[in-house]
Write a structure and sequence with these properties.
The protein is α+β, with helices and mostly antiparallel strands. The protein has 5 helices and 7 strands. It has one domain: Hypothetical protein (Archaeosine Trna-guanine Transglycosylase, Chain: A, domain 4, Roll), CATH 2.30.130.30.
Length: about 160
């Protein structure tokens, strides 16, 4: 089973740069047999730009997640605690083997009428299509980063 996670472009960029090693969520997948996480970069990018494997999923109080993972979060304390405001438990997904797609995928090409998930959605019948369109083209970010071409200059 695979999932698509919707993530804002600035956080996707931090993942690609290797600064953000954990993705934080208020809710997590009920299916624990997730093989790949496909990353949908939200507006203005609106593409599936890469994928990663899950290293571990940590569940804890937001304060403890922050205390233990601050240096690997890619976030400021304000961003983190604003996101988790009013939440008693949170989840941290370890990002392993992030692969950047040479040609980011328009999800509408695979799934006409695609509506980006608020958080995540399971992806089963289209997983093979994504793999065929990206293999052997995905690459490990640490080898040859090209994320500069995916994101518009926001300066």
């Amino acid at each position: 089973m695979n999932v698509i996670l919707s993530i804002r472009p600035r956080y996707v960029k931090l993942m690609m740069e290797g600064t953000k090693k954990y993705e934080f969520r208020k809710a997590i997948f009920k299916n624990k047999n997730i093989n790949n996480v496909y990353v949908y970069s939200t507006s203005p990018v609106k593409k599936i730009v890469g994928s990663f494997k899950i290293g571990e999923i940590v569940e804890d109080r937001p304060e403890r997640l922050w205390d233990n993972l601050e240096d690997l979060s890619g976030l400021s304390a304000r961003e983190f605690f604003t996101y988790f405001n009013g939440v008693k438990r949170g989840f941290a997904i370890r990002i392993e083997c992030f692969e950047v797609f040479d040609d980011p995928l328009d999800p509408n090409d695979l799934m006409p009428g695609f509506v980006p998930p608020q958080s995540f959605c399971y992806l089963d019948m289209h997983s093979d299509d994504i793999e065929q369109r990206t293999y052997p083209h995905p690459r490990n970010l640490m080898e040859t980063p090209t994320h500069q071409t995916i994101f518009p200059d926001t300066r």
